[in-house]
Design goal:
alpha+beta, single chain, about 400 residues
């Protein structure tokens, strides 16, 4: 009985014979996995390794001079060395170790802490049942977060995120009055010229009223509170103050401008990061481009497409470009101007309520212009720190 060959085989057929080959394959209704045209015009067909003899017989009978690759694919490599038991056992043991190790925490990174040390946070995590070597599938993140917050009076929020074998712990420190800088406080000032509509005071002394007209930078809520019984107190003033605001957007699209165009020149740098250690594959690049874009891509190494290792490949690509002159017609300038206006409106009104809008357009010899006046409601409260010596 013939053994079933694992893996797949690639067949390369010359460009002059690919039509005859495809006709023969279709007539005989033989299954193939995929096909593509190579750069030299030849046809490449991917088939199951077990179908090699059938394809070879049909192609030879039609006088087609085809090249067959050796068996490819993971199972083909395994089958090629299946009699070498020591090698197979070693590979299996290595994969088993890697798989088992991927189920445990190898490293803990702490982010967001300023006054609290990493050691203190890690110690509290250990008291909550999480540490290096923790078995990842059994971790109950909600329970872990709750236990940690109950044990720590310095952290107000925590999130444990695990990617591969690395646990990233994000924390937010609890800011009590004693922990805040003893001599730093805040006032609330106006971020724009406006007329006040509503005032929601959270902390501090209100110094304006509804319907007052204020200028940008005017004091709205003071962090200084005078009291006959307590004397002068300083607080972190805070409020939400909605007001009527006038805004102006100006758009200009010149008829003659420049456009970014890539030259085709580029440089690539690659590095390998294992845990916190980096190894550069490329010599350090000395940039010789006057204008360039930098594109960075990070990719983690996985085994069998599922087991992610704490090994990362970083690729940095530098693309050179030139600024080339470009001219637009008035119609093109009009279209571009209104696209720019729409984008600016989206940005200006992201946190505001529009009441009215007026748009004025006009042409000049050098381009197309848009003046847009907005009347809207938005929160104008802006916090500004001050110090008390």
């Amino acid at each position: 009985m013939k053994q079933i060959e694992p893996g797949y085989v690639k067949i390369k057929i010359p460009s002059t014979q690919k039509s005859v080959a495809m006709n023969a394959i279709l007539i005989n209704q033989i299954y193939y996995k995929s096909s593509k045209i190579l750069d030299d015009g030849a046809l490449e067909i991917k088939i199951k390794a077990s179908s090699r003899d059938v394809f070879q017989s049909i192609l030879e009978s039609n006088g087609i001079d085809a090249e067959f690759s050796k068996n490819l694919g993971n199972w083909a490599y395994i089958w090629r060395y299946h009699h070498r038991f020591g090698l197979i056992f070693g590979a299996f043991f290595l994969l088993l170790c890697v798989y088992l190790s991927s189920l445990f925490v190898w490293r803990i990174d702490i982010e967001g802490n300023e006054s609290i040390s990493n050691e203190e946070i890690i110690e509290t995590l250990e008291m909550s049942g999480f540490s290096l070597g923790s078995f990842i599938p059994t971790i109950d993140y909600d329970e872990l977060h709750n236990k940690f917050l109950l044990k720590s009076d310095k952290i107000s929020w925590i999130s444990v995120n695990i990617k591969g074998n690395i646990a990233t712990v994000l924390v937010k420190e609890r800011m009590t009055e004693n922990e805040k800088p003893s001599n730093t406080y805040t006032n609330v000032v106006a971020s724009n010229d406006a007329q006040i509509l509503t005032i929601q005071l959270y902390e501090g002394k209100k110094v304006v009223n509804i319907s007052d007209i204020v200028k940008k930078g005017d004091l709205l809520v003071s962090g200084v509170i005078d009291s006959q019984s307590q004397g002068t107190r300083y607080v972190h003033a805070d409020a939400e103050i909605k007001a009527y605001v006038n805004k102006h957007i100006f758009v200009k699209i010149p008829l003659n401008s420049t456009k970014k165009q890539y030259t085709g020149n580029y440089h690539i740098e690659k590095s390998l990061k294992i845990f916190s250690k980096s190894i550069n594959f490329s010599p350090k690049y000395r940039n010789s481009y006057n204008n360039y874009d930098k594109i960075e891509e990070r990719r983690n190494i996985c085994i069998l497409g599922r087991i992610q290792l704490p090994i990362q490949i970083t690729t940095v690509k530098y693309l050179e470009y030139e600024e080339t002159p470009v001219s637009y017609s008035y119609d093109e300038a009009v279209d571009m101007a209104f696209v720019e206006l729409r984008n600016r409106l989206d940005a200006e009104l992201s946190d505001a309520e529009l009441i009215s809008k007026s748009v004025t357009t006009y042409k000049k010899d050098d381009g197309f212009y848009i003046d847009c006046e907005l009347y809207c409601i938005e929160n104008i409260a802006s916090l500004v720190e001050f110090k008390v010596e």
